[in-house]
Each structure stands twice: as structure tokens, then as C-alpha cells.
Amino acid sequence: MEVREVDLPGVGKKFAVQTREGERLTVIIHNTGHREIYNFRRGEDFPFHALRLEDEEARKLAAILGGAYFQPALAGSVDLILEQLSIEWVKVGAGSPFADRTIAELELRRRTGASVIAVLREGKAVPNPQPEERVVAGDTLVVVGSREQVDQVLATARGEGG
């Protein structure tokens, strides 16, 4: 697959993708977080289909395409390990029990088995956050674990479990 990347000043980035089969699509990632996907027919310069996704929707689609939810039966042994992983982006709202607490205070690994692998804040990422990293309303936690573990984190973030 061929991928060409172009900066779009004031807008974001554009990725032009062409598959081995000659299929073409363009993905625009806006600075606002939303994405646009344009699909082109062979030999045509104008898209026949366009799709707009919000940030959370695009990340979930990426996880699906990346195999976080399902791997075909023909996949190799490494893929079988990935089949058992789920990655979720958990938005922390003002009323969330996660707001204004440190990673250590949340005790997500102990309580759910899932791990916070990054905190997304104001357009920047804090990869492998330290236990003393404080989570604030507006943050997005990138959480990894089994589907059940991640679902438990989502329920806890909504105040449904503990």
C-alpha cells in the first residue's frame, strides 16, 4: 500500500492511500479531531463517497481495522495475542469519578485488570503516564486490556461500577 502525507496548514493532515489493487482513498485529519474519508473510483478525480467521523468514532474504527476486536481465523500466533486485546479511548467528563484523581488513586489495574497506556490532553499525549499523573476533566485515557476489563473501566468511568 502506498501512503502519501501532506500538511494542510490551518486544517491538519491529508493522507492519500492507494492499495495494491489500485483502490484510492483520502483521509483528512482535522486539527479539531474529526476525520473525513473520501473514496475514489478508478480513474476518477472526484470522490463517489465521503464519510465524516468524530475523533472517538475514528479511534474506534481504527481499533476495529487494527484487529483489536476481531482477528480472522487464518491469522498467525502474534495476531492471536492481539485478538485478546482491546484498546479504548475513555473521555473523562466533569462528573466522572476519574476526574481530579491520580492514576495511582484510580487503581484501574488492580480493580479491573486494564492499564492506562496514555493520557490525551489538550492535543498532546502523555504516554505511559506515571502513577502521580493527575487526570482532569477533558482528558482522554487510552486503556488496554481484555474486552471485559476495558468494559469494566468504561462502566467505572460512568459511575456504574467500582
Description:
The protein is elongated. Strand 3 and strand 4 form a beta hairpin. The chain has 162 residues and is α+β, with helices and mostly antiparallel strands. The strands form three sheets. It has a five-stranded antiparallel sheet. Strands 6-11-8-9 form a four-stranded antiparallel sheet, sandwiched between helices. It is built from five helices and eleven strands.
Summarize the structure.
The protein is of the alpha+beta class. The protein contains five helices and eleven strands.
Write the layout of secondary structure elements.
Elements: E1 2-8, E2 12-18, E3 24-30, E4 35-40, E5 49-53, H1 55-65, H2 77-83, E6 86-91, E7 101-102, H3 103-106, H4 108-112, E8 115-121, E9 124-127, E10 134-135, E11 140-145, H5 147-157
Antiparallel strand pairs: 1-2, 2-3, 3-4, 4-5, 6-11, 7-10, 8-9, 8-11
The outline comes out as elongated
Order of helices and strands: EEEEEHHEEHHEEEEH
Largest sheet: 5 strands, antiparallel
Oligomer: single chain
Total DSSP E strands: 11
Helix tally?
Answer: 5
Radius of gyration: 18 Å
Task: Give descriptors for this structure.
4-stranded antiparallel beta sheet
